[in-house]
Amino acid sequence: PKKLVNSVSGCADDALAGLVSCNPGLRLLQGHRVILRDDLPALRGRVALLSGGGSGHEPAHAGYIGKGMLTGVVAGAVFTSPSVGSVLAAIRVLAQAGAVGILLIVKNYTGDRLNFGMALERARSEGADVRMVVVGDDCAFAAPGKAGRRGICGTVLIHKVAGALAEAGAGLDEIVEKVTAASKAMGTLGLSLSPCSIPGSKPSFQLAEDEMELGLGIHGEAGVRRMKVLPVDEAVETMLKHMTDPSNASHISLTPGCSVVLMVNNLGGLSCLELGIVAGAAVRRLESRGIRIARALVGSFMTALEMAGVSLTLMVVDEELLRLIDAKTTAMAWPNIVAGPATSRREEVPAPMDVPGKPLDETGTGPGAARAEQVLERVCSTLLDIQDKLNQLDRAAGDGDCGHTHARAAHAIREWMRSRPPPATPSQLLSCLADLLLEKMGGSSGVLYGLFLTAAARSLHGRSDPAAWADAVDSGIDTMQRYGGAAPGDRTMLDSLCAAAKALHSLRTPGADPLQVLEAAVQSAEVAAEATKHMEAGAGRASYIRSSRLEHPDPGAVAVAAVLGAVL
Q: Is the distance from CB of 130 to CB of 92 less than 8 angstroms?
C-alpha cells in the first residue's frame, strides 16, 4: 500500500520531528526518540508523567504532552516498543529537573512492560522514585490469557486523569491509587472494516468486502469475531453488548443511572462522516440502557495507522473523576470542547418564521392560470422524456445525474399543481416556482434555476407587457452570473439562456409579434446548446475534464433549450 513517507526506516523519526517543528511547547531529547515538555523547570516539586510505545498510533502518545497531561513520551519504531535506553534517558532528565516522583503509564503489551519495567528498575537503583501503572482496557476476550487485557484507547483517559492530578500537586501514591481505580472502571472495544499496513509491509490481515472484525487490537492483532458488515446501529449495539456481557471476564459493569465518559475513537482510516454516525448511535444505545453520558469525546485519539475502524471506550465516573477529565490541559490532541453531557434529545433551535410576503393571487383561476398550467405540464413532460438523454450527456463530464435532477423538478411541479392551481400573475408564478425548485430540485441546477426565477419574478413585479419578459430574463441571467461565476462560452446552461435572451430583446420593439420572437429565441437556444459540444468548459464540474473528452453538448444547455421549446 502507498504511504507518504521519505523512507520506511525513518518514518517514526520524521513524524516526531514534524510534531516538534509545529509545536513550540515540545522538545526532542538529543539522541533519543523522546519528546518532552519545554517547561521542565516547572516540574520541581511535582510528579512527572511518562508514557509511550510504538509509533503508528498518532496522536498517541506525543499529542498528549502538555500542562495537565503528560510530561514526556518515549516512542519506538512503528508498532515496536521503545528501547530501554531511551526510557531510562527520559526518566533521568525528569529526575534531574527536580520531579519528586515519576509515573510510567504503560499499555499492557509484553514489549512495553518489559522495556519500561527494565528502565524503572535501573532508575530505582540510581535513586529515582519511579512507579509504573499498566493499563489493560480491552474488552475483546471473554477469557483473557496469561498476558491479560490489551492496553488500547482507554489509556488516553488515564493520561488525562493522572495529568490533572499531577497538575493539582497530588503525590505519586495518590496518583497511582486513583488512576488504578479509574482503569478498573473502564473498557474499550474495537471494530474494523479494513486492516492496516506498516510502511514497507503488506496488510496485517485481510477482510472480505462484506466483512467486519470485532475486537481487534491497535496493531492489527486478531479480534474475537468476524461478521457481515452491519448497519451502524446494529454494529454499535453488538459492541456494547459484548463490552457489558457479564459472562465476558473483560466486561465493564454498567448499571442504569450510572455516569460514563464515552470516547468514540477513529482507528485511523474512517471518514469523519462515519465517525459522527457511530457517535450518534453510541449515545442513543447507551441512553436506551439508562446510562448517563456525562461527556462524549469524538475524534482520533489512538489510531492504528490507516485502519478503517472505530473503538468505543467507556469509563464509569463520579464527580471527582469528571472534574479531572474536565481540567484544563494544553495537550494539543485533547479535544477542546464545552463540558457537558451528551444526549440524543438536545432541544433544537426553532425554525424561523416565514417572512410575510404579499398574498398570492386569490383567484388562481381563469385564462391566465389555465395557460400557466398547460405550459408547466408541457415543460414537465419534456423534462421527463429527456431524462435518460440528459443523464447520458452528463456522464461524460459530471456524475450522470442531470436528468434525474430535472426529473425531480418535473415531479415537484406536477405535485404542486395537483395541490393548488398555479398563480395567474407572472411575478407570483415565477416566485413560487423558484421556492419549489430550491426546495425540491437539488444540485447546483436547483439553485441556479432558483436564482434565475427569483430575479426574474422581482423584475416582473407589477408588469406584464412583452418588454417586461425580456427585462426579466436579462435580470435572471445577471443574477445567475453574479453567483454562479459562469459566462457565455463556458459550456453551461447560460449558453442557451443568453442566446435566447438576445433574441427576446426584440420584444422591446413596438409592434413585435411575441410568438415569432419566442420561436426565434427557442431556435437560438437550440443552436447554442448544440454548439456547446465544441466548447471548452470554463465553469462547473465539466471544467475539470480535458476538453478533448467532451464530445457531446452540455446537458444543462440542452435542458434549458428543451424547457424553452416546451413553453412555445
A: no
57 is in an annotated binding site: yes
Give the whole-angstrom CA distance, residue 538 versus residue 530.
17
Mean pLDDT of the chain: 93
The response to whether 76 counts as a known ligand-binding position is: no
Nearest by Cα to 171 from 317, 45, 68: 45
From residue 48, alpha-carbon distances to 51, 171, 307, 339 in Å are 10, 10, 32, 26
Active-site residue identified among 61, 159, 219, 242: 219
What is the CATH superfamily name and number for domain 367-567?
A: DhaL domain (1.25.40.340)
For the stretch 172-220, pLDDT in tens is: 999 999 999 999 999 999 999 999 999 999 988 889 999 999 999 899 8
107 is in an annotated binding site: yes
Whether residue 68 is annotated as binding a ligand: the answer is no
Q: How much is the pLDDT for 357?
A: 56
Q: How many residues does the chain have?
A: 568
- The backbone torsions φ and ψ at residue 76, rounded to the nearest 5 degrees and listed phi first, read -105, -175
Condensed to tens digits (0 to 9), the pLDDT of residues 240-274 reads 999 999 999 999 999 999 999 999 999 999 999 99
CATH class of segment(s) 10-326: alpha beta
Is 404 one of the catalytic residues?
Answer: no
pTM for the model stands at 0.81
Give the residue extent of every domain in the chain: 10-326, 367-567
Is 56 annotated as belonging to a binding site? yes
